[in-house]
Specification:
binds 3-isopropylmalic acid; alpha/beta; 10 strands; globular; binds manganese (II) ion
């Protein structure tokens, strides 16, 4: 909030306590009218990290995070991957200009719909099924989103990644829809890559990627890999978007329970997420200022130890906030 306030953007905040402490006190994850209130009264949602181990069976992530994605129909999970400084990339001889792409992850379907079941549970004959949902509508709208984003950001290529050599029914749908939509965007190159090959190339030669669109599960996996290319999960930002609806912004990382209360977690993922949110809300110059301040902090190593600095979470965040107020 301090970061946003320092840019001067006229953003009003309301904080909802949907925390682990709240859950432990009264069992609330999302209050009954929670999603309706968010959709009706707010332009955007900024979500902190989830995953406190005191909350059983990850019900928090399920009801709050997946709840927002599914119930608010935030179908495009936009995860930019940008290397800010050469020192942050674990790969040899990779420069900032070599890692600059965006993953668009389908965000409302796939195995995440929680369909399936167990037969003869707990016995040696147990069978577990987990169904992978792919709808024509869901696949088409996220692919279209990827092409639109490429146009808007002046990017040249959209790559669709799947596992259609094995998962033939779901992959077949993705393949057909991708070809149909790509044909409408003659100005953008389209390409396909199996997801296993994609993982290999992401490490061997990340420079070739521009916009990647993929399903929910593959998107989840490749964005952790992609986060490592930019300095780790602590650096990665994301937006969960449905154009025209109240969208949600969250750092890609979880709550990193071993770091809790130690003032060592990297605040940049959350700060860059705030920049994404501001851009989405129409505050482009404020967003650019935040990104610039983050870039300078990284270059000057005014950061936490995971990316080479010696500051605490609070100090690193405050240093970025104060550099923003200086450059007003
Ligand atoms: C993510 C996370 C979530 C996901 C978990 C916490 C449910 O890993 O946002 O990438 O799998 O989508
Ligand atoms: Mn994930």
């Amino acid at each position: 909030m301090k970061v946003v306030a320092a840019t001067g953007a006229a953003v009003e905040f309301k904080i909802f306590d949907w925390s682990a402490d709240r859950y432990l006190k009264d069992g609330t994850t999302v209050p009954p009218d929670g999603f309706a209130t968010l959709a009706r009264d707010f332009d955007a949602i900024f979500v902190g990290a989830l995953g406190d181990p005191r909350v059983p069976s990850n019900i928090h992530a399920k009801e709050i995070l997946l709840g927002m994605r599914f119930k608010m129909d935030l179908y495009a999970n936009v995860r930019p991957v940008k290397l800010l400084d050469e020192s942050l990339c674990p790969l040899k001889n990779v420069k900032p200009e070599d890692v600059d792409f965006v993953v668009i992850r389908e965000n409302t379907e796939g195995p995440y719909v929680d369909a399936g079941g167990v037969f003869k549970p707990g016995t040696v004959d147990e069978i577990a099924t987990q169904e992978d949902f792919n709808t024509r509508k869901g696949v088409e709208r996220v692919i279209r989103y990827a092409f639109e984003l490429a146009r808007k950001e002046g990017r040249k290529k959209v790559l669709m990644s799947d596992k259609s050599n094995v998962m033939t029914y779901a992959g077949g749908l993705w393949q057909r829809v991708f070809k149909l939509v790509a044909a409408e965007y003659a100005d953008i190159q389209s390409q396909h890559m199996y997801v296993d090959t994609l993982c290999m190339h992401m490490v061997r030669d990340p420079k070739q990627f521009d916009v990647i669109v993929t399903n929910n599960m593959f998107g989840d996996i490749i964005t952790d890999l992609a986060a490592a290319l930019q300095g780790g999960l602590g650096m990665a930002a994301s937006g969960n978007i449905h154009p025209g609806k109240t969208s949600m912004f969250e750092p890609v990382h979880g709550s990193a329970p071993p770091f809790a209360g130690k003032n060592i977690a990297n605040p940049i993922g959350a700060i860059s997420t705030a920049a994404m949110m501001l851009e989405h809300l129409g505050f482009a110059s404020e967003s650019a200022r935040i990104n610039q301040a983050v870039l300078e902090a990284v270059r000057e190593k005014k950061t936490t130890a995971d990316i080479g600095g010696s500051l605490g979470t609070k100090e690193a965040a405050e240093s970025i906030a104060s550099s923003l107020s200086r450059t007003k």
